[in-house]
Amino acid sequence: MTAGSTPSTSAQPMISMHDVDKHFGALHVLKNIQLEVPAGQVVIVIGPSGSGKSTLCRTINRLESIDSGRIAIDGIPLPEEGKGLAQLRADVGMVFQSFNLFAHRTILQNVTLGPTKVRKMNKTEADELAISLLKRVGIEAQKDKLPAQLSGGQQQRVAIARALAMKPKVMLFDEPTSALDPEMVNEVLDVMVSLAKEGMTMVVVTHEMGFARKAGDRVLFMADGEIVEDAPPEQFFTNPTSNRAKDFLSKIL
Ligand code: ADP
Ligand code: MG
């Protein structure tokens, strides 16, 4: 599988954020964010609850607007609204903690809906693509069931397949395993590791250190709306420089 419909060939970053600020009312939730993610890089975002990790992800596919600054995907500035937004959401797949599958659609329909509606793929093609993706995440046998008939780990793998069906350039994961029973965490992380190995550009909010070390190229540590540290996983976990990161790691390791 390819990582995107039109792979980037230049040195241009796949994701770029410059001077990005965002408030929720009086709360300054993103403070002067500067971030460039080259194509194929896997960025792990960690930090205390409320530090702005989800908001950072959500601004990248314009689920949240920003007050000021610039965000671009593969060199294209984020659209404000309209048709451009649907295209952007196809290019930037997102997987949430709560799987957000369409409850009244079968597993297969959950995966084919986007490609037929947004990518204008015909049904036969969309079915073939969906089945190959469901195979890939190990859920093909469940294709005619409804989401509620699947385990949490299975539903999350469907959510990943659904995002991949749009042939995204970037995949965002916001705590994809936090809502899962412990025995299901690895089946989801394994899919994400293989995606990372295939060269997908990924931003992953997670506290799964094993995954961060195995698949991550870079860790961003966020606190109070700022990127406080930006380092390779090994360096960050063994030798964090800020007191806030040291304090955070002492609580979770
Ligand atoms: P994290 O994902 O790191 O836990 P979030 O990005 O979800 O942090 O939230 C950062 C801060 O913004 C928190 O204080 C949160 O309560 C607040 N916040 C998030 N979403 C909204 C919203 N839609 N309206 C108002 N405040 C919000
Ligand atoms: Mg969050």
From TrEMBL:
Q: What are the residue boundaries of the ABC transporter domain, all occurrences included? A: 15-249
Q: Where in the cell is it found?
A: Cell membrane
**Protein name as catalogued:** ABC-type polar-amino-acid transporter
Q: What EC numbers are recorded for this enzyme?
A: 7.4.2.1
Give the GO molecular function terms: ATP binding; ATP hydrolysis activity; ATPase-coupled polar amino acid-transporter activity
Q: This protein's superkingdom?
A: Bacteria
Q: Which family does it belong to?
A: Belongs to the ABC transporter superfamily.
